[in-house]
Amino acid sequence: RAAPLNAPPRFERYVALGDSSTEGLMDMDGRGGYRGWSQRLAERIATTQSGLLYANLAVRGRTTRQIREQQLERALALHPDLATLFSGTNDVMQRRFDVSGFATDVREMQRALREAGATVVTFTLPDLSPLLLVARPFAPRIRAMNEALRDACRATGTRCVDFAAHAVATDPRLWNEDRIHANPAGHARIAEALAEALELPGSSGEWRSPLPPEPAPVPIAEVGRQLAWALRHLLPWAWQGLLAPRSTDQRPGKRPQLAPVTSLDA
After folding, report:
1. Given 63, 70, 136, 171, which is the most exposed site by the fewest CB atoms within 10 A?
2. To which H or E segment does residue 90 belong?
């Protein structure tokens, strides 16, 4: 029987590739693990269409090259009809950011997934300077990375949510205190934005709406907060990303096999 006109999309096999963002860090699931935007999106799809098989191959700390080398082949073997692919945070923190290599890796992963029949969705990384002045040195890298990502998406037909174009993406109330990972509210907004990009029933542009205004921070207190953040988060992150090589172990990921999204995941 022919599908009705304007029928909502239906996905059977969703595979997520990426790093700690896709793994869901800082969005606790209440059972000692992490939920994250990818699982929130899977739950949304499963509820909408009464079922979905979902796998999450993401491993924290991975660069785009490592995701291509360690996750792409395994993702293709699962024959997804939907894939999310997000990376780059760990790339821009490396001693040297190779934007050309990043662009090639992203484009080839997108192309391989698209040629395998998957709808592919990704998103840009906002400039973190409004959150933290000390993040300004990374801003040119993030802009270059985002432009390379947009070019790849245009070339491969990948759907791209351009968070970098929306001011709400840098509202500190959507970020964990480390300013590297989204908090639960941020993960929820990412999932909603991806749902809109996929044209899921009930999705809207509400995720773009700004949060209610709050009082401006006291300048002296803000300086103290940023210094404390640098000592607690930036220096350890810089040591890992700029001075120490990334791990090359072959961890299978958060949810390495396709399995039904059930009420236990909610």
Report:
1. 136
2. helix 89-92
